[in-house]
Amino acid sequence: MTKLLLNWLTNGPAAQQLISFDHHDIMTGSLFCAHVTHLHNQLSQSDAKRWLLAAQKSDLFAAGLCAALLAGKQVILPANTQRGTLSELNHEFDAIIADKPLCEAGEFVSLKKELSLPAANWPKASTLGELVLFTSGSSGQPKAITKTLAQLDAEVSILEHTFAQHLPHCSVVSTVSHQHIYGLLFKILWPLAASRAFLSEQIDYPETLSYYLAIMPNLCLISSPAQLTRLPDALDNQLQQRTPSLIFSSGGPLNFESAQAVKQCFKQLPIEVFGSTETGGIAYRRQHQQQQTWQPFERVNVNADPQDGALMLQSVYLDNPDTWVKCDDKIELLENGQFRLLHRLDRIVKIEEKRLSLAQLEHLLQTHPFVSDAAVTVLEQPRTMLGAAVCLNELGRQTLKDEGKLAINTALKNHLLSQFERITLPKRWRYPNTLPLNSQGKRTSADIAALFIHD
Amino acid sequence: MNLHNQIKQLIIDSLDLEDVTIDDIDTDAALFGEGLGLDSIDALELGLAIKKEFDVKIEANSDATKAHFFSVASLASFIESQRV
């Protein structure tokens, strides 16, 4: 387990390393090098330390990322680029490096593909920068998580060590975004460091995946339950002629039936990776059977808190690899060191693998001029989604009477869009006169969920 | 039922949209983002439902697919263009 990522970032790509491709273009090692140098020059001349990074295309994102790290900058990755999210973070960054000017903020360095850049040597770094990822905290406030290159390097090196034997001559395609830790590691950093080309666009449709499977001999698919639960139906649950070399799924639990359906189409079970932005990867599994246990990665130690069963973690991916950190998932630890995941111990939930805080969403709903109180719960039928129970004030009730329920739903959704991605918004809305309390005067999620049961 | 309404009903049924009726869906308005407010998972599920119901082929080129799925009107012309 050598320092795969650190070595690569220090020396840069070989001229013949293919960095990325899409259906009409490629990014060669030398062209990538020219982009990184060009961006590095601009960043080095700036006093701004904290740079918000965002780009649609993974090749441009990777160039911006490498340039900023080599220039010793702090790279800020927001949970999403919704306008309200960025304005909440505006004290956390000084400048923006992106493919479009996202908001009014000091300096802006533009990420775009330029074919006329002069050939250049890979920049030499005196100090390497670090990453700061913002994700949902359980209090509802965005939470900053710093990742040093040493931490990212440990993760990339162990991924290569654990899985490389299944990936000879592979290219990497992904249905998940590179803006979050999973896509960032699996689609950008690991492929760069291990000389695997990645697809610079994100795959949205099963047809696009089939296209790349048909034209590329060896593909590693980076995906998530949102896609993998729907993919087999789109492929008529038929065994495909061309199948990926390896399929990864992360971001949330993949149900057993979906894992089996993926196997039906692609002759293999996805490798699921369990972890979080804070902890990095913790464990992995293939669901050969129901209740399949999780195998911790090498150099990751797992224990269960004797009080509440919470996962305790000691990991080389953490800031301090010697301390035990308590996580918010309850586990059942087995004698062989593997474990079963039970449930979350806080109010952070995942909708289509997007992590969000129910407290933050409720708080934002309560600030709408129609609303006096709001409670949000996770519903499991017909798919995992949020249900919002909202008590309207006088203005809200009048508007409901005049314009109807759909109009109120839409108004509240538009309000939530300032901080939440559309895919996570509540899909079921109820407007009771009061929110139910139990006999101890507490609001329970079961009572809220009961409001959504159809009679 | 005409094709536009047939598509609207399919959208409501396949995505299990509560509180939405055929009359609430504007034939020319964007289905995704602004407009009806569908998300990227809805896009996946709607793609599957349209394929099954109308027996059409969806292209690998995602820009073309996005154009076909822009509105009820564009979906209707896409479906009609594949009819023999």
Automatic annotation (TrEMBL), chain A:
<dbReference type="InterPro" id="IPR000873">
    <property type="entry name" value="AMP-dep_synth/lig_dom"/>
</dbReference>
<dbReference type="InterPro" id="IPR045851">
    <property type="entry name" value="AMP-bd_C_sf"/>
</dbReference>
<dbReference type="InterPro" id="IPR020845">
    <property type="entry name" value="AMP-binding_CS"/>
</dbReference>
<protein>
    <submittedName>
        <fullName>Aconitate hydratase</fullName>
    </submittedName>
</protein>
<feature type="domain" description="AMP-dependent synthetase/ligase">
    <location>
        <begin position="122"/>
        <end position="288"/>
    </location>
</feature>
<dbReference type="InterPro" id="IPR042099">
    <property type="entry name" value="ANL_N_sf"/>
</dbReference>
<dbReference type="Pfam" id="PF00501">
    <property type="entry name" value="AMP-binding"/>
</dbReference>
From TrEMBL, chain B:
<dbReference type="InterPro" id="IPR009081">
    <property type="entry name" value="PP-bd_ACP"/>
</dbReference>
<protein>
    <submittedName>
        <fullName>Phosphopantetheine-binding protein</fullName>
    </submittedName>
</protein>
<dbReference type="InterPro" id="IPR036736">
    <property type="entry name" value="ACP-like_sf"/>
</dbReference>
<dbReference type="Pfam" id="PF00550">
    <property type="entry name" value="PP-binding"/>
</dbReference>
<feature type="domain" description="Carrier">
    <location>
        <begin position="1"/>
        <end position="83"/>
    </location>
</feature>
